[in-house]
Automatic annotation (TrEMBL):
One cellular component (GO) term of this entry: membrane
Example GO molecular function: L-amino acid transmembrane transporter activity
InterPro entries documented for this protein: AA/rel_permease1, AminoAcid_Transporter
The name this protein goes by in its record: High-affinity methionine permease
UniProt-annotated location(s): Membrane
UniProtKB keywords: Membrane, Transmembrane, Transmembrane helix
Entry annotated with the keyword Transmembrane: yes
PANTHER family given in the database record: AMINO ACID TRANSPORTER (PTHR11785), METHIONINE TRANSPORTER (EUROFUNG) (PTHR11785:SF353)
Secretion signal span: none
Membrane topology: Multi-pass membrane protein
Chain ranges passing through the membrane: 40-61, 102-122, 134-154, 174-196, 216-239
Amino acid sequence: MMVNVSYMIVVSKDAQLSEGQAVALAFFGNFTDDYKASQIFAAFNGISSLGNIIVITFTAARVKQEIAKEGILPFAKFLGESLPKDDPNNPNFTSRIEPLPVGALLLHWSIAVVIIVAPWTIDPLPYYRLLTSLDSYTVEAFFFTVLGIGMLCLRFTQTSSGGRWRDKSSSNHVISIIAAVITVVSNGFPIIAAWFPPSSTTPKDITNILINPWYVVATVGWGVLASSVIYWLVFRFVLPRFGNRKGMAFVVDRRPFLHSEQGYFVQYHEIVTFSWVSERRTPVAEYQLPERPLSVMDL
């Protein structure tokens, strides 16, 4: 936040609203000549972009893998596994290699390729602006609003056992509530504001950077969220009513294996079992997703 504030203080309003100039480049240009500023900007931009790509690639892949472990994605076994699989019985096995979510990485790479190739014959600027706006709307604003509401619910509602989270938390209740309210208001505002068209008095330099038509981001964003809910409802309530799964329930059993490292418990192995079970809880089909085979040296 402080970086954004520094940009607003140093860079003029016209430069911030200009489409042809990066705000960071204008920031460095205020301290040195244009040539050196462009070099500094290119170096920082390259390092930042590389770090962002590395972090997002592995983080997003792990998120996809964890979703696959819940069994709700197609090809869940492939997307949920990690490779290579350690084999401590192999005489050539000398060290533990951290397994990678190969299936989830492949899925992430495929989506990235589609995003890059899709605007091949069109102007990419509106396309990527729409994607970043959708990401900000659905991922950032929506989920942080839900997170803030959840924080408030923890503070003011009772659990099923009759207790309250505020009775267990040692942190300052007032600060926690204020933080939750700020989170809800700041992230909920763009969710609501996106449904209102720009005013006729809105400056042209601002309307030029808005998505046209103005309701696309909110409509597509809520469409994506609604599609996700429909997908889950079909998986949860429709599939168990037809075919071989009729009258059965989908059960996910996750068994983690932990050991202690430097005083902290660390998960080194997990077995995930998917089962369609009848009312008597009898497994009718299952398979496992071993992340790392259990070995004596892991204990």
